[in-house]
Amino acid sequence: KVTASGPVSVSGFFDEGELVGVLTAQPLDRVLDYRAPEGGCFVGAFVEVPLGPRKVIGVVWGAGKGDYHKGRIRSVIRALDAVPMREELQVFLQRAADYTLTPLSSMLRLATRAPGLSNPPSMQKIYRLGSGRPSRETEARKCVLDVLEEYGGLSFTLGELAKQAGVSSSVIKGLVAQSCVLEEDTPRDLPFARLDSTRVGKTLSDDQAAAAELLREGVKGGDYGTTLLRGVTGSGKTEVYLEAVAEAVKHGRQALVLLPEIALTAEFLKRFEARFGARAGEWHSGVTMTERRRLWKMVGQGGCQVVVGARSALFLPYQNLGLIVVDEEHDTSYKQEDGVLYNARDMAVLRASICGAQVVLASATPSLETWANAEAGKYKKIELTSRFGPSVMPDFRAIDMRLEKLPSNRWISQSLEKAVSNRISKGEQALLFINRRGYAPVTICRACGHQIGCKDCDATLVEHRFQKRLICHQCGESEAIPEVCPSCGAEDRLAAVGPGVERLSEEAVSLFPQARVATLSSDLYASARALKQQIEDIAAGGADIIIGTQLVAKGHNFPRLTLVGVIDSDLGLQGSDMRAAERTFQLMRQVAGRAGRAETPGTALLQTYQPEHPVIRAILAGDEEGFWQTEASERRQVGVPPFGRMAGIILSSPDLQEVFELGAELARRDGPIRQIGAQVFGPAPAPIARIRGRHRVRLLVKAPKGAALQPAIKAWISQVKQSNQFRLSVDIDPQSF
Ligand code: ADP
Ligand code: ZN
């Protein structure tokens, strides 16, 4: 539930010299007073203001208050040439700040990530693919042409193209001279090609057509509403929500499609272009600066109708947003875990409720939160119960590892081995899934028992044999694989313990010497492009056995894949996290869903040491409704989300004793928390107990559903002062509890 904080601005115009309140993205949590510049300015205007000795960019948030002045009030330097921020976005940022208990200035930073906002020259030189062929195909030239081909119609500035291709600008100039690359003067920030919403999509099945009609009605109504679109992988959810996108476009409203993984955008954009005859705008960290700048401007002016992107696309300045699709809504990557802690799915619902848009939450395995909201009637629910066409969900079976008697350092059981041989001998593909990057999770000294850990984090270093390094998955620090034990100095006694995706690959190669084995893990590829190439290659039949991390669980289409083997089904069930069952269930269903998408039915084999575990049994039985019901009743009993509310308070400092003492002190002074009928648990070591040399402890707050959680937490934490070394951050709706 979001607490409204009332209107944040007066509408209107400020004459030169009038007091205005300007919000900047600087870490000061207040709106500062300035005088309106020559020519005046509107509320929402992007302006440049002096701040100490610097000039910074800000937004005119409303009238100045005139209540806080150390000296004379300075003037706004100038209003920038950008569409003023709409009131709807201002309200959204304010409420998102209130909800997540983050400073408004940090929220503003998310909304002003457009490069070059301040100073737009009107023309620029851009580069795109020409028709000529180079006289000599050098490696560098080929890189440039590859990049341009890869990005289709996109154009680049010289600097961007050189960087993307990894060549010097003279290589590009050389290609221009031969008309292989075209150099053009263009006005900056051209609108995107218009979409053709009258084009018809695929002919829908009856189920799909009914679902599409319901979504269209919502969009047509023009008000806020959220719908859960649930359907097994391959049931055509994408086809269905594309109809809702078409409807929004038809009514002159913009649509946003959020995807959980950048690697999925390329495939989606292709489908989108086929459907609408033009490209959607693309927004994520892999997009060129020129493109991002253009998109940011065009979204604000209505020159971009549909955006496909990562969670940060929620903060773009839409002119008239009518639809937000959150695909794979259960995906944990929608939760931002760094900086501003927010869940993009929940923020999508918040923004839509402010601007009167529809939200579609699509998933084969919805989060328990969404499931409960649909059950309670807060969200509409649409179900697609069967896969499109002849394909059916795979058959699930357990392999009881207690009976397999595997030798040490082997992870593929004989039963799984047989099943794989059987499939690949028929020209089908098999996927072996393990949710662990690298070669081995632990390196241990067999002489002294020492485990090599990160010196700054509470984590063991993971061997990445491909990169020949030990890497900390927490902070990213790495070191060369040592030859002697760093603790006792013994030679040749270091041993890799446990499997990662690289090691599994090695085992598969030795078990199936004839087969082509492809390993898919995000860190094995130099670029998103190389990874995409590999995925396309696999889809085209270029591999017999695919070894993958959870990267493969998400949305790729491998038509020949008929067998999925899960190496360690028990992995996610360890530990005390209340969400572990839900996550494991979702992940297993998702991975298994990769199998048997075309005519041949698929099989999913789960290697497990505890086949009678209730979660494993629910997965095997395919009894989703039963699983959700059981899970829901357990959580209802203890009053945790979605039947109660939680917040995590993370305290961190280089000094372990200090954080624990402060945590304990905060736990004692829990008056404001008890006042709303909530409880404090902890302090306990945070899920990641040490990162980058900082010790972290966590307090968990559990509150009844209707409690006013945020104001209570605000009052509570204001009792401790942050210092240079000591920091506190609030995580509303934490991922693990
Ligand atoms: P989901 O998003 O539920 O996984 P998709 O929309 O990706 O499902 O559909 C799975 C596959 O089936 C895609 O290749 C899609 O093009 C195809 N498909 C789905 N519905 C239809 C349809 N009505 N006509 C033709 N192909 C369809
Ligand atoms: Zn580390």
Automatic annotation (TrEMBL):
Catalytic activity: ATP + H2O = ADP + phosphate + H(+); Couples ATP hydrolysis with the unwinding of duplex DNA by translocating in the 3'-5' direction
Record-linked NCBIfam families: priA, PRK05580.2-2
Name of the featured protein: Replication restart protein PriA
Gene: priA
Subunit and partners: Component of the replication restart primosome.
Residues that bind Zn(2+) 2: C454, C457, C472, C475
Annotated Zn(2+) 1 binding sites: C445, C448, C485, C488
GO cellular component assignments: primosome complex
Keywords tagged on the record: ATP-binding, DNA replication, DNA-binding, Helicase, Hydrolase, Isomerase, Metal-binding, Nucleotide-binding, Primosome, Zinc
Residues of the Helicase ATP-binding domain: 227-384
Principal EC category: isomerase
A GO term, aspect molecular function: 3'-5' DNA helicase activity
UniProt lineage: Bacteria, Pseudomonadati, Pseudomonadota, Alphaproteobacteria, Rhodobacterales
InterPro entries in alphabetical order: DEAD/DEAH_box_helicase_dom, Helicase_ATP-bd, Helicase_C-like, P-loop_NTPase, PriA, PriA_3primeBD, PriA_3primeBD_sf, PriA_C
Family under the similarity heading: Belongs to the helicase family. PriA subfamily.
